Amino acid sequence: MRTTVIVFPFDLFGSAGTGAGARLLGDAVNEILDDTEAETRPCRADALRGKVRVKEHAFDALAEVTDWRKRGRAAAKQAIKSGEFLVWLGGNHLAALPVLEELGAETLVVQFDAHLDVYAFHDTTTDLSHGNFLTHFDAPRPRVVNVGHRDLFLTPEEIAETFETVYPAWEVAADLGRVVADLGAKAKAAKRVWIDIDCDAFDPAALPAVHEPLPFGLSAPAFLALFEAVWEGNVAGMSITEFDPGRDVRDTGLNLLGWLVEYTLLKVASRVP
Ligand SMILES: [Mn+2]
C-alpha cells in the first residue's frame, strides 16, 4: 500500500514553534527515502521504494495563513479519497482539525493526548484554539477515543459530550493489558480508524519537546503496545502534532518520532491495499 505524507506546519493560536517540528519530521521522511534509494544491498526498506511521496505546505504568506483550514481540508480530502495511507505531520494540535473533519462519522479517531481539548475555563478563549478545537468541529463529527490523558478538571459529563471513551494514563498504568485488549476490539469493530498523536501524550521523560508537558504520561513501550492494538483495525492514517524541536533534549523527541514514522511507513508498505 502507498503512503502520502503531508507536512502541514500550521502553528498559530498556540504552541508556536511546532511548525518547525512538522517540517523537521518531513525532512526525516525525505532522508529515509533518500537512504533507501542509495542502499545497494537488499534490506527491508526496499519495500518503501516508489511507495511514499511527501507534500509540503507552507505558511509563509498571509493568504496561506488566512485560508489554512480550507486548504487543509482540500489536501486531506484529496489524500483520503486516493485510498492511500495518509501521514499528516502537523504543527500544533489544531493543525489536525482539517483532516479530522474530513474523516466523518464512520471513522473512529484514537487520540493519544495528555489533554482533552474541549476546555472552556475562565482563562481559555471561546474562539478556536489548540485547547478547545474539538468543540469547533464541522458536523458530522468522527467518533473520538482518548488514550493517555491526565486531565484533572473536566467532569465526566463534559468529557462524554465529545469522547466516546477515555483511557486515562492512570488506567493504562494500572492495567495496560486490559486497555490494549479493549482498544484493539474497538478498533477492529470500527469501519475506519485514524490515529491522532499529540506528542504530550508521552511522558516528558520519553518526549520532552512539547509546550504543555504533564507528568505521568505514557512510557514508550506502553505507547507501542497501545499503538499496535489500534492496528487490529482498518487504519487509514495517522497525524502527529505538537512536536517543538526547540524544546527537545538531545534529539530525544526527534529520535522517537522519526523511528515511529519509519516503523509506520514500513508497516503500511507491506500491507495489501
Ligand atoms: Mn495535548
Characterization of this structure:
With 273 residues, this protein is α/β, with parallel strands linked by helices. The chain has a single domain, classed as Arginase, Chain A, CATH 3.40.800. It is 38% helix and 16% strand. It contains nine helices and eight strands. Strands 2-1-3-8-7-4-5-6 form an eight-stranded parallel β-sheet, with helices on both faces. The longest helix is centred in the N-terminal third of the chain and has 21 residues. The termini are close together. The site of manganese (II) ion (MN) has 7 residues, from loops.
Short description:
The chain has 273 residues and is α/β, with parallel strands linked by helices. Bound molecules: manganese (II) ion.
Annotation keywords:
single chain; 273 residues; 9 helices; 8 strands; 38% helix
What class do helices, strands and sheet pairing give?
alpha/beta
What integer is the average pLDDT?
Answer: 93
CATH class: Alpha Beta
The bound ligands are: manganese (II) ion
Overall strand count: 8
Q: What is CATH's topology name?
A: Arginase, Chain A
This entry's quaternary arrangement is: single chain
Helix content: 25-40%
Extract low-pLDDT stretches: none
Tally of contiguous helical segments: 9
